[in-house]
Amino acid sequence: MKRTLTTLFLAMTIAVCPLWPTARAQQQLDQTAKVKAEVLKRLNKKEEHVKVRLRNGTEVRGYITQTSDNGFTLSNEKTKTGTDIAYADVQRVEGRGMSKTKKIAIAVGIGVVIFAAAFAYGFTHIWND
Question: Contact, 72 vs 39, CB < 8 A?
């Protein structure tokens, strides 16, 4: 019985193995499409200042000056030199600074602390008399 299950498992593995590269290529195409959409969205909203994480692990900062079908040009802020980057080489595109969600979370946190402090002060000084 164990031998039959092992044989079936190995047969299934051998049958499915050729499909892995196809699935990986499809995933990379999806990632490339997401990166391209993010770059175009940021360029249209005039949010050109970005931080780009490449697939080789390096991080590049600058602003988007130009886009094409295969990539975009990222200009360095200090030297004003442009670097052409292919969409396939990009792992992630982020805006610079804090996101709107982080800013809202900080403001809500500050509001909660102020409310708690006012409540504690009122409880100890006003209602305690």
Answer: yes
